[in-house]
UniProtKB/TrEMBL annotation:
Family: Belongs to the ATP-dependent AMP-binding enzyme family.
Keyword set, alphabetical order: Isomerase, Phosphopantetheine, Phosphoprotein
Domain Carrier, residue spans: 973-1048
Domain of life: Bacteria
Keyword Zinc among record annotations: no
EC number: 5.1.1.13
InterPro entries xref list: AA_adenyl_dom, AB_hydrolase_fold, ACP-like_sf, AMP-bd_C, AMP-bd_C_sf, AMP-binding_CS, AMP-dep_synth/lig_dom, CAT-like_dom_sf
Organism of provenance: Anabaena cylindrica (strain ATCC 27899 / PCC 7122)
Cofactor(s) it depends on: pantetheine 4'-phosphate
Record-given protein name: Amino acid adenylation domain protein
EC class (word): isomerase
GO terms, molecular function: aspartate racemase activity; phosphopantetheine binding
CDD domains, A to Z: A_NRPS_AB3403-like, DCL_NRPS
GO biological process, alphabetically ordered: amino acid activation for nonribosomal peptide biosynthetic process; lipid biosynthetic process; secondary metabolite biosynthetic process
Length: 1070
């Protein structure tokens, strides 16, 4: 704009600064391009209509405004004296209506993407499309930097007044509007210090944006926005309006309340924050209601939700908060963000609520009678992932605009349905508590509770595992049942030995519910021992010889086993105990004297089959008591699904203290297949496993994902040509590992999920070689098993929304041995079943349903984890570490690196300044914990970070990337001329003394407005057209210098190859 055409220059409002940044960051995205579209019917005087717009532009400085920022300390808005109306006409007469609509959609989309050159006024366009001689489409596009929604009808009404006057040869006298710069001046007088105190207190303790929790599975790369709308009925709308009037609430409060409740349900958090758009028009500014410009502001709305609160008092408190924040609604959002505890690189919130209380249709029509203005609609794209707009009327309209990169169409459809359900319930029964408000539609609830849990299969309910084995012995007595090294037993031989042991155990008093300990290395004796215990009617308690004596001692004492099966070589390692010891190697001569026939016992399918100990949060392991009935269901389902045959060979390599070993043993032996037992310790030797699988022609094997990763890196995989099914469970299966598996092996891969408390596995998924999913699901429930994903109030969560996974069905364990308190806590009454004494098991696992009924595993609700297939209570490790005399405080977490490799990390606060010797601590733990529970990394801190309520803030623990570098960041000065220039700019803009080349711009206090300033300085310094997003992609000096060097090199190559390019600033496509 030339100097002689400049009428005024003044600063931007905070909202304008934010919009300018986002427009520069995504210049071709259409962000903040607003379109008002309407249909005109009647005799339109096009010349008068065009002149009316020109007169309106002449009248309002904001419509003649452009924005400049290059090489300026702060951006400015510049008002031109004369700006011509940008007018375009198209004639679509003679084109079919359906094609007209297609053309309109394309034209509007193209117009949005076209955007505006923000430094050139006017930042608006007008398009008139003639459809017939008396009907038109009219589109007014403008940048949101100029006007807010309240200003739009003011402008349009003024255009119609001018149009009416021009048509009647009358010049209407309109009062000169108060200029927008008066509002800017008012803003500059406001006290930001008071606002800072208010917002810091308001947002205290809030450290991360409230997650919407329903991001789509496969994100698209295209930056596409879409909208969906629902219209509430006359009845519901009237009921909401009546409720608001009776309780002295605004309709806006009801909408915000419903959105807060939805966020609570979706995020699982009881303290949520979303953005609320406020009018921003200060009542102290005279005639502010008739001013035009960008007055609105978006402010954080923090809502705390106690499920037991009554609805109306909660809504009244919400409205009081709105009123309280109104006096500070001038606060710049970028400053509020800086005053909060949310890091700069994260957004303050991910959704905003807009209450569009400025109806256009009726007010426009009142101004003109010979031209019918209908179907007025608008489109605007914000930079937020999701915008909820409420448009009041006789039928309340709810519109959600969303980024297709983040959300898919079915998710938004469900979301609108949930909002309607909430608002309907609020209007119908305002006296209820928040927890009583429904979210799901009846159809959704039936799908989640009934349809996806129809897993009934008629399996024999009275059978015991050893009885199924005995039936198989009758069918294939001479087939090889089990192989270990150079030894083997047929089904008849194995049955005979197990029978002899069973008779011996019965003589010693073993009967149903008798717990028998077994501490044996992997061998033929182990299989004989397990079967012998079951045939005697007892239940086995596996004690891994690799466990520390202290842990085995606890299990023996807790289980009070009267008998312990073991091997002579292990006697010296066993702790002191009171059980009668039977050594299956040296005592066998005595056992062979007993009856070789199948013994009789009174055991039923309701009796215990085993007690397997898992990690416990109190520092002591807990024993899960499982029954024959649950395991039979699990194994019969497995046979139905995978169809093991006598030609199959199954590798038994899982430690028998881990529940996967149960199916390795017994699925094989009830189907006539061959069980091949790996040597002790062999399950950790990938080279040995490759050789064993090849030599024994193994067809079926189990791996925890961590071991599968190691196995796939071993040479000789091509020799495992008989392998046809690999079953994974024990921890999350990474997508990258699945893909690597299919690239290397010609076999099926199955991902199973389940806890020890529910007969090993409860869901299953067959992995797909070319799956587009970015993760591996855990699938659907197995036979006679139900899965419920519930929120904190025990209600089903919607599809896509995380919740705690609960299990129902015949596979549930009886509970925990000697722990009735914990049993009652974890095994709860079944709220969705009519059966007496039916229960659910609370897994503590976080999961969500996918749209087709499959389940995605998301991790632990608490701090219990699965690592390399072992379930670990981090609290147990913390408890043991804290027993060391030199440790004052400890926190243990699982840290994942970029390769998805997980490590246990212990953060320690020593009792004194004396240096803690890690080697000594590690030795201390080796005597008390299994090796898989000993942390890989120890980080010593002066104090643990705490949350405002005094709890340990695990999210604030420093990243323990000790494998790459020391935890303390080393200062690295700039090395090259580019880095020195960048460092000087960083230091100047951020007001620092010095900066390391590895320091992150945003971690140092940078934000979006300062980023705009830095990029402007960089463009000037390097004579390059650097996109604003470059700083976000490369926020360190080292990274940015590398990008600039690459651009310079590309520019040099282009210059050499083309004489057309002129010297000066160049724009390179990155």
């Amino acid at each position: 704009m030339r100097a002689k055409n400049i009428e005024d220059v003044y600063p931007l409002s905070p909202m304008q600064q934010g919009m300018l940044f986002h427009s520069l960051y995504e210049p071709t995205s259409g962000t903040y391009i607003t379109q008002l579209i309407c249909d005109l019917h009647g005799q339109l005087n096009i010349s008068a209509f065009t002149q009316a717009w020109q007169q309106t532009i002449n009248q309002h400085p904001v419509l003649r405004t452009a924005f400049v920022w290059e090489n300026l300390e702060k951006p400015l808005q510049v008002v031109g004296q004369k700006v011509n109306v940008p007018w375009e006409e198209q004639d679509w007469r003679g084109i079919l209506p359906i094609e007209q609509q297609e053309r309109l959609d394309t034209l509007l989309d193209t117009d949005r993407k076209r955007g505006f050159e923000l430094s050139k006024a006017p930042l608006m366009r007008l398009i008139l499309i003639r459809l017939t001689d008396t009907s038109y489409h009219f589109a007014w596009s403008h940048h949101h930097l100029l006007l807010d929604g309240w200003s739009v009808p003011i402008i349009f009404l003024e255009v119609l007044v001018h149009y009416k006057g021009l048509c009647q040869c009358d010049r209407p006298i309109l009062k000169s509007p108060r200029p927008y710069r008066d509002y800017i001046a008012w803003l500059q007088q406001q006290n930001l210090t008071e606002a800072q105190v208010f917002w810091q207190e308001k947002l205290k303790g809030f450290t991360a944006p409230t997650p919407l929790g329903v991001d789509q599975i496969t994100r698209t790369q295209e930056d596409i926005h879409a909208e969906q709308t629902i219209q509430l009925s006359l009845t519901i709308t009237a009921a909401l309006q009546s409720l608001a009037q009776q309780q002295h609430l605004t309709l806006n409060t009801l909408i915000q309340g419903a959105w807060a409740l939805l966020l609570k349900k979706y995020s699982g958090q009881e303290d949520v924050v979303f953005g609320a758009t406020v009018s921003g028009r200060p009542s102290t500014l005279e005639n502010v209601e008739s001013m035009v410009g960008l007055f609105i502001n978006t402010l954080p709305m923090r809502v705390k939700i106690d499920a037991f609160d009554s609805l109306i008092p909660w809504l009244q408190l919400l409205q009081e908060q709105q009123v309280e924040s109104r006096q500070y609604e001038y606060s710049p959002l970028v400053e509020i963000h800086g005053w909060s505890q949310v890091p700069r690189h994260l957004p303050l919130f991910e959704s905003i609520v807009v209450f569009e209380n400025y109806p256009i249709d009726a007010s426009l029509q009142e101004q003109i009678t010979d031209l019918n203005i209908v179907k007025v609609r608008s489109f605007e794209k914000t930079n937020f992932p999701l915008t909820l707009s409420a448009i009041p009327g006789s039928e309340l309209v709810l519109k959600i605009a969303y980024k297709c990169q983040r959300f898919d169409q079915p998710t938004i459809t469900r979301m609108l349905g949930h909002l309607e359900t909430l608002l309907t319930a609020i209007a119908a029964n305002p006296d209820q508590r928040l927890l009583e408000l429904p979210l799901l539609t009846p159809k959704e609830e039936n799908q989640l509770l009934v349809e996806w849990n129809q897993t009934q299969v008629d399996y024999p309910q009275q059978s015991c595992i050893h009885q199924l084995f005995e039936q198989q012995v009758e069918l294939t007595p001479d087939a090889i049942a089990v192989v270990f090294e150079n030894e083997q037993l047929t089904y008849r031989e194995l049955n005979t030995k197990a029978n002899q042991l069973a008779h011996y155990l019965q003589k010693l008093g073993v009967k149903p519910e008798t717990l028998v300990g077994i501490c044996i290395e992997r061998s033929l004796e182990m299989v004989v021992g397990l079967l012998g215990i079951l045939k005697a009617g007892g239940a086995y308690v596996p004690l891994d010889p690799a466990y520390p004596p202290e842990r085995i001692a606890f299990m023996l004492a807790d289980a009070q086993v009267p008998i312990l099966l073991t091997q002579t070589s292990l006697l010296e390692t066993l702790p002191t105990h009171s059980a009668q010891v039977i050594c299956l190697d040296t005592d066998w001569d005595k056992i062979t004297l007993y009856n070789p026939q199948n013994p009789q016992s009174s055991v039923t399918s309701e009796n215990l089959i085993y007690v397997i100990y898992t990690s416990g949060s109190t520092g002591k392991p807990k024993g899960a008591m499982n029954t024959h009935k649950g395991l039979c269901n699990r194994l019969l389902w497995m046979q139905d699904t995978y169809n093991l045959t006598p030609q199959d060979r199954v590798l038994q390599k899982t430690p028998f203290s881990f529940d996967v070993s149960v199916w390795e043993f017994f699925w094989t032996l009830i189907t006539g297949a061959k069980l091949v037992i790996a040597q002790p310790g062999g399950h950790q030797d990938s080279a040995y496993l490759v050789q064993l699988i090849a030599r024994e022609q193994i067809t079926t094997v189990h791996f925890v994902p961590a071991m599968l990763q190691v196995f796939l890196e071993e040479s000789g995989l091509e020799t495992c040509r008989f392998l046809k099914r690999v079953i994974c469970s024990g921890e999350a299966l990474p997508k990258t590992l699945q893909d690597r598996f299919f690239a290397l092996l010609d076999a099926d891969l199955h991902n199973l999920y389940g806890p020890t408390e529910a007969a090993i596995d409860v869901t299953f998924w067959q992995c797909q070689p070319h799956s587009q999913l970015p993760f591996v699901p855990i699938g659907r429930p197995i036979s006679n098993t139900q899965i419920y994903i519930l929120d904190g109030q025990g209600k089903p969560t919607p599809v896509g929304v995380p919740g705690e996974l609960h299990i129902g069905g015949v596979g549930l364990a009886r509970g925990y041995l000697n722990r009735p308190d914990l049993t009652n806590e974890k095994f709860i009454p079944h709220p969705f079943s009519q059966e007496l004494d039916s229960r659910l098991y609370k897994t503590g696992d976080l999961a969500r349903y996918l749209s087709h009924g499959d389940i995605e595993y998301l991790g632990r609700v608490d701090y219990q984890v699965k690592l390399r297939g072992f379930r670990i209570e981090l609290g147990e490790i913390e408890s043991v570490i804290s027993q060391h005399p030199d440790i004052r405080e400890v926190v243990v977490i699982v840290h994942s690196d970029q390769a998805d490799f997980q490590r246990l990390v212990a953060y320690l606060v020593p009792r004194s300044e004396q240096k803690l010797i890690i080697a000594e601590l590690r030795h201390f733990l080796e005597l008390r914990l299994p090796d898989y529970m000993i942390p890989n990394v120890f980080v010593i801190l002066e104090a643990l970070p705490l949350t405002p309520n005094g709890k340990v803030n695990r999210k604030a623990l420093p990243i323990a990337d000790t494998f790459l570098r020391d935890s303390e960041v080393v200062f690295v000065p700039p090395r090259t001329s580019i880095e020195k220039t960048l460092a000087a700019i960083y230091v100047d803009v951020l007001k620092l003394e010095k900066v390391s080349i590895h320091d992150n711009f945003f971690a140092l206090g940078g934000h979006s407005l300062l980023a705009t300033k830095v990029i402007s300085r960089l463009r000037e310094a390097f004579n390059l057209e650097l996109p604003l997003r470059t700083l976000f992609e490369r926020p360190t000096i080292a990274g940015l210098a590398e990008r600039i060097e690459t651009m310079r090199l590309a520019l040099t190559q282009v210059s050499r190859s083309s004489s057309i390019i002129q010297p000066g600033r160049k724009e390179i496509e990155l």
